[in-house]
Structures are given as C-alpha cells and as structure tokens.
Specification:
The complex is a heterodimer of chains A (426) and B (468).
Chain A: H1 55-60, E1 67-72, E2 84-90, E3 93-100, H2 108-113, H3 117-124, H4 132-147, H5 153-181, H6 186-206, E4 215-216, E5 219-220, H7 226-251, H8 254-260, H9 268-274, H10 279-282, H11 290-293, H12 314-338, E6 357-364, E7 369-376, E8 382-388, H13 390-396, H14 398-401, H15 407-417, H16 421-425
Antiparallel strand pairs in A: 1-2, 2-3, 4-5, 6-7, 7-8
Helix pairs in contact in A: 3-4, 4-5, 5-6, 5-12, 5-15, 6-7, 7-12, 12-15
Chain B: H1 8-25, H2 28-64, H3 66-100, H4 116-126, H5 137-153, H6 172-193, H7 197-228, H8 233-238, H9 248-251, H10 253-266, H11 278-281, H12 291-316, H13 342-366, H14 373-399, H15 401-426, H16 432-461
Classes of the chains: A alpha+beta (426), B mainly alpha (468).
Chain lengths: 426, 468
C-alpha cells in the first residue's frame, strides 16, 4: 500500500506553485478496493477463504451436481438476531446446513468473572434480551447457594410473579414471530400489544423496560408499587380472554396449521441427546420442567400443570407455548392471592466474599433451562462463571431437523425452536 | 468617440468585440435568456407554420386511420391511468392493513396521509438506477418494462363503461390471458439476470406458479364464454345486463371461486406471494432492483391487483351494469352534453353565485361576531361549490350512461381490491409444494368439472323440443 505522505506546506494560505502533485492514492493500488475486473462468479460462493479445517467442513463445502449454497443471514428478514445458516440446496430442497455463530459474541462469561457479585446480575441481563429476568434468576440462584442466603418469602413470590409475567410476554412474542416468518402480518402486532402492556408493567416495577436488573442476591430490588398493581389488575381482567383470541388467530388458520404440522419433528431420543429443554422438550413428550423436576423458589406451593405433547413438530412446539401461557396466568393469579407480607431483601454485607466452593443454579426460562455454574475462590469476584443457555442447545438440533425439508421450512423450524442469539453467542 | 470602421472586416471585428464585451458582462440569467428566448421564438414560429400547413393532412390522416388512432389514444390513456390507480391501491393497502393491525398507518403527508404513495413514487424516481456487478444489464433493464407493459396492456380490452374501452376485440378474453401470461417472462428475466440466488429462486418460483395457475384461471372463464357465446368483453358484459340476478356469478359459482383463487396466485398476492416471500428469499426477483426499475415492478404488482379485480367484475359480476334495474331514462335531452344546455350554465354560473351570496350573507348575519365578511363568504363559497359539484355529478350520473358505468365498475372493482388487501392482512403464506399441489390436484379438476357441467347444461337446456 502506498504510504500517504503529507504535502509540503509552504505557509498559511499559500497556493502550491507549479503543476499539482500526482495522486498519492489510487484505488487500483489498494488491496482493500475491489475492482470490477477482480470479480468472478466464484466469489459469490460461500466457500470459506481459508482451507477447510475439519472433515465435516470439507464435506459440507463440496457441492454435488445441481446443488448450490445460499446464505440465510446474518442479515436476512427472517433470522432471529444475527444467525447465519449456510444452506446447501438442491432446487428448493435442503441437503445440508451449516449454522455459523459468533456475530454477537461479547465474552460475557469473562466479563462476569472480572466483575463483583453484584455487577454480574447487570452483565447477564442482555443475554436473553427477550426475557432477561430469567438469566438474572439463574445467576442469583447460584450465588445464593454459594453464600447460603435465605431469601424472604415475599421476595420469592415477587420473583415468581414477575418471572411468569415475562414468560407470557416472551411466549406471546414467539407466537407473533412464528406467524411473521410464515408470512402472516397481523399476529405480530397483536402480540406486541400484549407484550408492551407487560413491559410497561414491569417497567413500573423495576425501573427499566427490557433489561431489568431487578433481582438481587437475597431478594429483589424494590417492593410492589401501586402503579404496577393497578396495571397488572387491568391486564389480568382481560388477559385470559385476549390470549385465547390471539391464539385463535393462528390455531384455527388452515394455512398456518398445514405449514407447521409434521414439519421439523424433533423426536424424544434426539431431543434428550442434544440436551434440549423447555417447551421444545415437552413438545416431544418429556414432561421435564425445572419448576417441578428440581423445584426452586416457591413453585412447590403453587398449583399448575406441565403441558406436554407427543408430536414433537413445529405445531406441537407452538401449542405448548399457548398452553404454558394459560398456566402462567394461573400462577400469577395464585401469586396475587398468596402474596405474604414482609421484607423483600435479606440482610447482606456490602462486600460479598463467599467461601471457596462451587454452585449450580438453574431456573425454567421461557426457552428452557437457564443455568449458571459459579465457582468461588474466596474473593469478591467469581473465579469461574459458566452460563448454560437453552437456545444454544436448541440451535444445535437445526442441522438434524432441516435436511429434507424445503427452503420455506427453515423459517418455520428455526422460529418454532425460538432461539435468541444474544444468549447463543454470549 | 470611437471612429466608425471603414472596411467590412473592421466592421465585423468591431461587432464581435462588442458582442464579446456584452456577453462577458452579462449575468448567468441573462445569458440563459439570450440563448433560450430566440430558440423559443423559433420553435413557436415553426410550430405555428407546421400546424397551419399540416393541420388538414393530419386530420385527414387521423380520419383515415381511426382504429390506429383509437389504439394509440387507448394505450396512452391506459398507461396514464395506471399511475393514479397504483397510487390509490398502495395507499389503500397501507391504510387498510394498518387499521386491521390496530395501527394508525400513514398520516403525515397530505390529508390522512393520502400523499404518501405519491411521495414514494417521487422517491423511487430520485433513487440511483443501480445494476449489480455480474448482472446481465440488458435483460436486467428490460425485465421491469416487460412485466409492467404485459400487465398494463391487458387493460386494453377491459370495458370500463359503454363506449369506454381500448379495443373491443372479438378474442378479448384470449388476448387478456395471453398478455397476462407474458408478465411471467419479465419476472423470469429479472430473476435470471440479477446474478443473485434469491432472485433466481424467486424467478423460478414465479414461473412455476404462474404457469400452473394460468390453466385453472383460463378454464374457469371458459364456462362464461360458453354461456355468453362470445369472447368479446363487451358482449360478455352486455349478456349480463339487467339486474344482479343476471350476473354470471349465479350461473357459475364454482368458477368464481376457482377464478378468484387463481387470480390471487396470478397477481402474486398473499397467500400465494411466494415470488417475493420476504421471510424466505428476501424480496425474490426484485432483490437487486432499486430506483424506478423497482418502481415498475411495484407498480405492476398493484396494477395487477386492479386488473384481476376488474376482470373478475367484468366476466362474473356484470361489469359496468347496475346491480338493479335503473329506473330512470339514460339520456335526458335537456342535459345533453353535445349541445351545452341552459341548465349547465345556470347551475355552474348563476346558482353558484346566488348560493354563495345567500349562504355567505346568512353566515355573516347570524353567525355572530366570530365571522368576518371574507371568512363568511369564503365558507359560503365552499359550501355552495360542494353543493353545485354534487348536483352536477348527480346530473351527469343520471344523464350519461358512461358515468354510471364507470361508477358501478369502479365500485365493484374496489370491493374486490379490498378483499385482496384484506387477505394480505389475514393469511400466512403457503409453501411452494402446497401451492403446486393445490393447483394441480384441486383447482384444475374442479375447473374441468365446472366446464363439463356447464357444457352439458347448455346442451340439455338448449335442445329443441321435438314433438313425436
């Protein structure tokens, strides 16, 4: 690259004498500038610019007769976040798929290991930006085990209440986005009405609209207030009816049902092998829900069902979410009736230095098991902070689900698995 | 004092020096005027002279070639008609879908946002006309024109009202389907030439889709042709005249259903908008297009909706005929347009003035202190003008059957345009194999069944009763 030298300055305002200096910088000399003569058809193949490193990679990037590669993402109208799927197509049929991750990688685990225990909650918030309370909850559960903190019962109830509200918001958004990826314009906007209600509600409780930073080690930050309760009352009076109406938009739509039924069947054995949790696992017939399987908080005191289905296809995954919204409304109702009085924070020192040890905390998020594995070395920062994100496990199943389906089914399957890229890339 | 130049050469030099001095002293505006004014004068003189010389021959030529002239005028008229039609449809779609989504929709430009689509039109005009590297530029440029013209030229045979049509071809319906089928060529060209895989998939999808749905679409219209006994659009409309009960929708209910579904696929509308499925192949064949080239595709899409609705109305819903027996006579002599009657002048001139005065005075006198005289008479003028406009419109509606025809035709057409928009807000998209399966497994057999039943019914009902 030619070096850019400064033109000799002959004094303020002086015009250069003689012929102008030759152009110092020509685009043809710049290796970063692509010229038309450099362009050939091969450049448009998504072949990696490096020699293939693994056997799988070289197998994937050798295309057979009549096959072509196509990129879905990282910028594509239907990707959830910055997911890139390199599809190998034969006509419209998918032969193979290679998901490419890491466009949103921030090194959150390392950041958490460099912040003290209070600040970790702030850092894990944007991982699952759709439902950030649950990642906080997992971290807080792990830290509380590490420090043997007793959480006040009122704080536990408030956690369950706000968590279930957020679960409804997340599932509502899921239904809308699934419909949008199938080409339906309207359900997403109806979903956003419900979600905005809940977000405004939680904003009045927590002070923030999406990244709440509300749960604390040993309780929650702030008690229920009047505005939250009045908004919640307004919403609960119509929530069940409105949810049924919104779900009816899709449940009773012939095209929607035909697009999702039997598409992307995730059977029980495969789901367990890949570590799938949450609604995607329950849609495959395994009644595994951390709220019942490994009870935490006050869930043992509450009465709710774990809906399961046997089909394991996209429609089952969608219908599980619809059922879970109903159950969450029931839980919120019980929380409001059983809410005890008392403090919302345990008494804790200003600087937390847990004894050396390790703890695993996990809660049932809208997508599945949100887990945190924290190791303490006795300092005020976690020695190791490992985040288990369910979306990552679910995305791993995509290469087994997609081949054999059509291009349009990519959107159905990926959307019905409901990945959030913030959590996947960490 | 300057000495008078003696020789011719000196005179020329002096004149040139003077001209150069004047030119260098003149401002840019003056220079522009110095160039343009003589040119305009020359052009005007030339125009007048040629008009005087050529007027007679031109009129003779036009008179001798009336079909050609009619075709030219109709083609230009249709091309001009598509622009406001597309604007209205785009605005309608934005607004109707917004209301169905519980949104407000466009509300910034113009009253209720009505100028939004016009501004969109200016926007695409002002954008860069861009062709991607590696594209086949010739085909890439031609593709929007082919699509646009193919869909617009089908309007040539649609009768909007008695006497208001481009051409009354005796193979009108055939012409319509032939021209409509050409538009797939444009989409295929766009998909192939863009050098983009999304475009390619979109183009191939459109080819498969439109070719498949063309067959049930055409077959469902054949029943009507059998009943009407002609493929001329005007004839088809005339054979449905009377009341709404004479429309072919009641004689061919299955055909209407098939036709509507196939027309949705032909116009690439939801739930069959696979060619530009945004969540799958970004924008399909239009992915690489920008500026006015994209604008042509966009226009063609919306004009297609209008055209399909218009054809549906024409062959199944009575075209421009009124839905009930119109009780009044069509041509009232005292309102005849050719001899501008006293009533027209009276309504437009006298009544407007008198009504403005009366209304303005009344508002001024009884409106209280808030009304100044100009404001009162201004409002009076507006009200009177609206009243007169309404009266003239009503008179035209009664007097001219073509005004009536256009009214009924547009009213019916926009009902179906609304249904198209409604479907877009409601339904998700079908998958490509479902789309093809539906066409070949359901629509085609149903259309054939409809055709056989219609033919058999005509054969039986029209059989002369022979006494034994």
């Amino acid at each position: 690259m030619p070096s850019r030298t400064a033109r000799p300055n002959t004094g303020a305002g002086a015009r250069p004498q003689g012929p102008p200096a030759p152009a110092q910088h020509r685009s043809e000399d710049d290796p970063r500038v692509m010229l038309e003569r450099d362009i050939n058809a091969d450049m448009y193949e998504p072949i990696p610019p490096y020699p293939t490193q693994t056997e799988r990679e070289s197998e994937f990037y050798s295309s057979g007769d009549g096959e072509m590669f196509i990129n879905i993402g990282p910028h594509h109208p239907a990707t959830h976040g910055v997911l890139r799927l390199v599809l190998k197509l034969s006509g419209e049929q998918i032969v193979d798929v290679d998901p490419v991750l890491g466009y949103l990688h921030r090194g959150v685990e390392k950041i958490c290991e460099n912040s003290d225990y209070y600040h970790v909650i702030d850092q894990v918030d944007p991982l699952e930006y759709i439902s950030s309370l649950f990642q906080e909850w997992a971290a807080v559960l792990a830290f509380e085990k590490l420090m043997d903190v007793e959480v006040p019962r009122r704080a536990e109830y408030i956690r369950v209440l706000s968590g279930e509200l957020l679960r409804i918001a997340s599932h509502t958004l899921y239904m809308g986005f699934l419909a949008l990826d199938l080409g339906g314009l309207t359900p997403i906007l109806y979903s956003f009405i419900e979600r905005d209600e809940i977000m405004e509600m939680l904003a009045s409780l927590t002070g923030a609209r999406m990244l709440f930073n509300y749960f604390r080690i040993g309780g929650v930050n702030g008690d229920l207030n009047h505005e939250f309760m009045s908004r919640l009352g307004d919403w609960m009076s119509r929530a069940a009816k409105q949810t049924e109406a919104n779900a009816g938009l899709l449940n009773e739509n012939e095209i929607f049902v035909r697009r999702t039924r039997g598409v992307g069947v995730l059977d029980r054995a495969t789901a367990l092998r890949f570590g799938v949790t949450g609604g995607n696992l329950r849609a495959a017939g395994v009644p595994f829900d951390l709220r019942r399987a490994h009870p935490y908080s006050v869930y043992p005191e509450l009465d709710f069902n774990i809906p399961t289905r046997d089909e394991g296809d996209s429609l089952a995954r969608y219908l599980i979410r619809v059922d879970e919204v109903r159950e969450s409304i029931r839980i919120i109702d019980q929380c409001l009736h059983n809410m005890p009085d008392g403090p919302v924070m345990a008494k804790l020192p200003r600087l937390l230095r847990p004894r050396p040890g390790r703890a695993w905390g996990a809660c049932e998020g809208p997508r599945g098991m949100m887990g945190v594995y924290a190791v303490s070395d006795g300092s005020d920062q976690p020695f190791r902070f490992r985040i288990h994100d369910p979306s990552f496990m679910h995305l791993e199943t995509v290469p087994t689900l997609l081949p054999g389906n059509l291009l349009a089914d990519t959107m159905t399957i990926v959307a019905s698995l409901d990945p959030v890229l913030g959590g996947i890339d960490k | 004092m300057r000495a008078i130049p003696a020789t011719f050469r000196e005179q020329t030099r002096a004149a040139r020096a003077f001209a150069e001095q004047a030119w260098s002293g003149a401002s840019t505006t003056d220079r522009l005027a110095l160039i343009l004014v003589p040119l305009a004068l020359m052009a005007f003189v030339g125009f007048v002279v040629s008009a005087v010389v050529m007027l007679g021959p031109t009129i003779d030529f036009l008179g001798a070639n009336q079909p050609l002239v009619r075709f030219g005028v109709a083609a230009v008229g249709i091309l001009l008609l598509t622009v406001p039609t597309a604007f209205v449809l785009i605005y309608m779609e934005l607004k109707v879908i917004a209301r169905m989504n519980l949104r407000v929709g466009p509300n910034r430009l113009g009253p209720w946002g009505a100028a939004t689509s016009m501004i969109h039109g200016f926007k695409v005009l002002s954008k860069e006309d861009f062709a991607p590297t590696g594209a086949d530029v010739t085909v890439f440029t031609l593709a929007p024109a082919v699509t646009f013209l193919a869909s617009v030229m089908t309007l040539l045979v649609i009768p909007f009202a008695p006497g208001i049509f481009g051409q009354d071809l005796n193979i009108g319906l055939l012409y319509f389907f032939a021209m409509g089928g050409l538009s797939v060529l444009g989409l295929l060209m766009a998909g192939w030439s863009s050098f983009n895989k999304y475009s390619l998939l979109g183009g191939l999808r459109s080819a498969a889709q439109i070719v498949s749905y063309e067959i049930p679409l055409t077959l469902s219209a054949v029943g009507v042709v059998l009943i009407a006994g002609s493929m001329s659009m005007t004839h088809i409309v005339m054979s449905q005249s009377g009341s709404a009960l004479d429309w072919f929708v009641f004689k061919q209910p299955l055909a209407v259903l098939i036709f509507f579904i196939a027309a949705t696929a032909e116009a690439n509308r939801t739930p069959f908008d696979l060619t530009e499925a945004d969540s799958e192949i970004v924008a399909g064949f239009a992915t690489e297009y920008s500026g006015m080239r994209f604008g042509f595709f966009f226009f063609a899409e919306y004009v297609n909706v209008f055209i399909m609705s218009a054809l549906l109305v024409t062959i199944f819903f009575g075209g421009w005929t009124a839905p009930f027996n119109w009780p009044w006579a069509y041509n009232l002599n005292w309102l005849d347009a050719s001899g501008i009657g006293l009533l027209w002048i009276g309504i437009v001139a006298v009544v407007l003035f008198v009504a403005t005065d009366i209304l303005g005075a009344a508002i001024w006198l009884f409106g209280g202190r808030d009304w100044s005289a100009p404001a009162a008479f201004g409002l009076g003028f507006l009200v009177a003008g609206a009243g007169v406009t309404a009266a003239v419109g009503l008179a035209c509606f009664i007097a001219f059957d073509w005004v009536q025809g256009i009214f009924w035709f547009m009213a019916k057409t926009y009902v179906f345009v609304f249904v198209f928009v409604w479907m877009r807000a409601t339904l998700p998209r079908v998958r490509v194999d479902q789309l093809m399966g539906f066409a070949w497994k359901w629509l085609l057999p149903a259309a054939l069944l409809n055709l056989f039943v219609t033919a058999a019914a005509i054969l039986i009902l029209n059989q002369p009763v022979t006494p034994r």
